[in-house]
Amino acid sequence: MPLLSHETTIDEALADVGRRLAEVDGKLDSLEPGTDRHDALQQVKDRLTRYQIGLEWQRDEAGWGGDCELVIGPLTAGEQALLDREMPDSPGTAEYRIWQVAAATETGPYVADDVETTFTALADAHPAFVEWASAKVNDLATPDGDEGNESSMSSSESDPSGPSTNE
After folding, report:
1. Residues 48-62: pLDDT tens digits?
2. Rounded distance, CA 74 to CA 138, Å?
């Protein structure tokens, strides 16, 4: 099965995040504060809220607009090898995310002819936008049952029962 890309606009991504925030809020309302489940869901809510802030910032402050098209795919073996060659030896988590998203984005306002130039352009984005895009890359690379790797709901973004690879 080939690796599949995800096409969205900023407004569609915001609607998806808003829908998931509403689901988490509904679940939080029924849980007692201070319990493990409540605390885990609160962490998911906090992460989704950061994604929302980053997407809104790119739409409004960076001037991308709500109809800005983004096509993001999982990293192929070749793209991962390219990253291994282009990245510094010990990038921190935030820097790795920028490299990852730069290599994985097929269409977007920051995409250039090469990954290094794309990295430089993406480095000006809101950090929470890069976190959202990185979570999308990770989600697309991980089949999750019912929807395969086309799912728009990452287990790492929404499932508080396990550790997140996005933090």
Report:
1. 999 999 999 999 999
2. 7
